[in-house]
Design brief:
The structure holds two protein chains of two kinds. Chain A is mostly beta strands. Chain A has strands spanning 4-7, 10-14, 19-25, 31-37, 43-48, 52-56, 59-64, 69-74, 83-90, 99-100, 104-109. Chain A has no helices and eleven strands. In chain A, strands 2, 4, 5, 9, 10 and 11 form a six-stranded mixed β-sheet that branches. A five-stranded antiparallel β-sheet of chain A has the order 1-3-8-7-6, with no helix packed on it. Chain B is mainly beta. Chain B is 0% helix and 53% strand. Classes of the chains: A mainly beta, B mainly beta. At the A-B interface, strand 4, strand 5, strand 9 and strand 10 of A face strand 4, strand 5, strand 9 and strand 10 of B.
Chain lengths: 110, 114
Amino acid sequence: GIQVEQSPPDLILQEGANSTLRCNFSDSVNNLQWFHQNPWGQLINLFYIPSGTKQNGRLSATTVATERYSLLYISSSQTTDSGVYFCAVVAGGATNKLIFGTGTLLAVQP
Amino acid sequence: KAGVTQTPRYLIKTRGQQVTLSCSPISGHRSVSWYQQTPGQGLQFLFEYFSETQRNKGNFPGRFSGRQFSNSRSEMNVSTLELGDSALYLCASSFSGGVTDTQYFGPGTRLTVL
């Protein structure tokens, strides 16, 4: 089955710094979403981005489907950005099953 | 529009017991999927329901089952609980369950098996 790898696994930033999180996937995808898991466990939708570039405030994402990777950019990080960031994909077939990466644990220090 | 809701938020059970978790999707959404999150295995797909029918199933034993009602609310049941079933159980809803649908997650039910 499709493999989803995220890097780096852990990241520590000072408030105000910028960061780039990467998601590599091993096969073509129909769907790619980025999530932020808050300390209480809820997965918050950040982007639906199977291809192209999107921006939402301090966050932006780019997916290059032909090269099988996606990037999540966080600018001017804040302590509230801390948590785990997941990318998840839906591969071929009729199922909408999301395959999750292992996540990037981000800690933003004041 | 209200988001996905899950009840209860926390549960403590003992081995051998059974448990039922509930998920109410976003109004108008007809597809509900369930996921299990553990530190060792990460986030794994359990099953998906659409129009009261299970459409897809992950690689979990038959102790894990679910159903969906006519109002799209879904329940999952775990029988004969094992210690390894301790996890965060998340449900997600989407409009039609299509492969390009955006899925929205609830806050989760944290199950502890003693």
